[in-house]
Amino acid sequence: MPQFASATWRFIARGLSPAPEPREIHLEAFSEQAPDRDSRILLSEATDALGLRKARVDWRVSELTSRTIAVFADSVRAEFDRLGLGRVCVSDWVDASSAPSSHFVDTYHHAGTTRMASSPYEGVVDTDCQVFGVEGLFIAGSSVFPTSGAANPVLTIAALAIRVADKLKAKLGFAGWSASDEIPADRPLRAPAYAASRQLD
To answer: CB under 8 Å to 17, separation ≥6 — which residues?
Structure first.
């Protein structure tokens, strides 16, 4: 009851938010990761209900990412101190030389496993999101991102999918056609079938 009375007094008498003033604010850092060829998605020995092998994510956190977090924390601490906003206490594990990966968590946005590149020696898809050497096979998702960034990738994925769809419409002779339009009877939509095998390391 005392807390309710205090909140009411703050709101009515002083025109402030009824929420109590925070004594402590918890800060987290979201950092872009540099591409790491040791991070990959593999097939595990475990199988799902259909008998198919499940995916296993082997996610590595590099020394560069650890250093990035440490430098960011030091910058925030220095700026808060300069502006007199409060004292920033950095967790003990944040160290410029090495931070244990157990303190890092992902945000469930896997990216980079089929990277976009200018040649098949550097990536999996070209700048139109078509798989190198496999005509008609396109990938539109965060797996083609050369780097991941730190923001939610949903809007970028949607924009990329629209771009791929526009390219395909133009290639199939349906430029300007929208989903609400009827496909002309004299122009049936046929997609060629392709079969390919690819050796994966």
So the answer is: 10, 11
